[in-house]
Write a structure and sequence with these properties.
single chain; alpha/beta; Aspartate Aminotransferase, domain 1; 5-stranded mixed beta sheet; about 40% helix; binds pyridoxal-5'-phosphate
């Protein structure tokens, strides 16, 4: 927990001076998370958005970013309400369409920002194909791998240059720590990020790093169980007459199932589904007994939420509707409970 470290002489120390700059527990976490993404480097942050902000500060006024339109609401808010003020420009595209990505790249494009699967519509981007296009135009590719987890998908192996995580979610896994991380194998990017991590200061506490290290020990067990449960929940929802549409990359009718099967080990623990309208969605959410009505995701307990009014409320209604996040949409984060209980809970609330 130390904030400072005794030095043997001025400038003579054992690698640690002050904990914003470096801390042994944070080092242990960074080494562990780098290994999970098979990256040469990892930098840990106090939240996913802290990691994202620090990464974006490597860009300069006038630089252009192309991003997947269905990104986490907080990422959109950071781009649209904060970074635009500093002269960065952004274009939202459906990155599941590789041609659309290529068309939106300009000579000023420095970065293509992806999420796959996306939040909350579980759209899938061919990371390999988009990386090839971006690199041919000299842009770097960043993938927010929060939903997939490094256990299911390793974007650096698919051509991405940088991975970001909200480690608050599956990496922590127990709804008890907020954190973020950036992984890369580029020494040059690591050098710039390390400078900015210290200069900007969005660093995690040693205790948070320790909690994340403890949580990550069961990542594989949790994600396997969550993915198996999610597949069964998605299939059950698809057979329910009250449900208009189910969004899950493992379903046969998902438009990008083959891409998901190629780049992911399993299909993950997130499922979204659409009901008739907002009132029906609200009533269903209020009637769930095992699923807690709460924001966040990726922990051992199952959660349900209403993206339009909760996690994605920071996106203007028009923008939200354009990207397909309707008022009847419910997002589920599937936990490790008995799947028969989860399905019974949903069916009872829907009936
Ligand atoms: C996909 C995704 N990326 C980034 C974030 C932001 O992370 P944090 O809440 O840890 O700042 C979230 C948070 O919900 C998320 O779902």
């Amino acid at each position: 927990m130390a904030t400072t470290f005794a030095q043997q002489g001025v400038g003579k120390h054992q690698g640690f001076e002050y904990s914003r700059t470096g801390n042994p527990t944070r080092n242990a976490l960074e080494e562990c998370l780098a290994a999970l993404e098979d990256a040469k480097h990892c930098l840990a942050f106090s939240s996913g958005l802290g990691a994202e902000t620090t990464l974006m500060l490597l860009l300069n006024p006038g630089d252009h970013v192309v991003y997947m339109e269905d990104v986490y609401g907080g990422t959109f808010r950071l781009f649209d309400k904060v970074l635009k003020r500093f002269g960065l420009t952004f274009s939202a595209v459906d990155a599941a369409d590789v041609d659309a990505v290529e068309k939106s790249i300009t000579p000023k494009t420095r970065m293509v920002w992806l999420e796959s699967p996306t939040n909350p519509l579980l759209r899938v981007v061919d990371i390999d194909a988009v990386s090839e296009v971006a690199h041919s135009h000299g842009a770097m590719v960043c993938v927010d791998n929060t939903f997939a987890t490094p256990y299911l998908q390793q974007p650096l192996h698919l051509g991405a240059d940088v991975v970001v995580h909200s480690s608050t979610k599956y990496i922590g896994g127990h709804s008890d720590v907020v954190g973020g991380a950036i992984m890369t194998s580029s020494d040059e990017l690591e050098k710039q990020l390390r400078f900015h991590q210290n200069a900007v200061g969005a660093v995690p506490s040693p205790f948070d790093c320790w909690l994340l290290l403890r949580g990550v020990k069961t990542l594989a067990l949790r994600v396997e169980r969550q993915s198996m449960n999610a597949m069964e929940v998605a299939s059950a929802l698809q057979g329910n007459t009250a449900v208009k549409r189910v969004f899950y990359p493992g379903l046969e009718n998902h438009p990008n199932r083959s891409v998901a099967a190629r780049q992911m080990r399993m299909f993950g623990g997130m499922v979204s589904f659409e009901l008739a309208d907002e009132a029906t969605a609200f009533r269903t959410l209020e009637r769930l007994r095992i699923f807690a009505l709460a924001e966040s995701l990726g922990a051992v307990e199952s959660l349900a939420e209403h993206p339009a009014r909760m996690t994605h409320a920071s996106i203007p209604a028009q923008e939200r509707q354009r990207s397909g996040v309707g008022d009847g949409l419910i997002r589920l984060s599937i936990g490790v409970e008995d799947v028969a209980d989860l399905i019974a809970d949903l069916e009872s609330a829907l009936s």
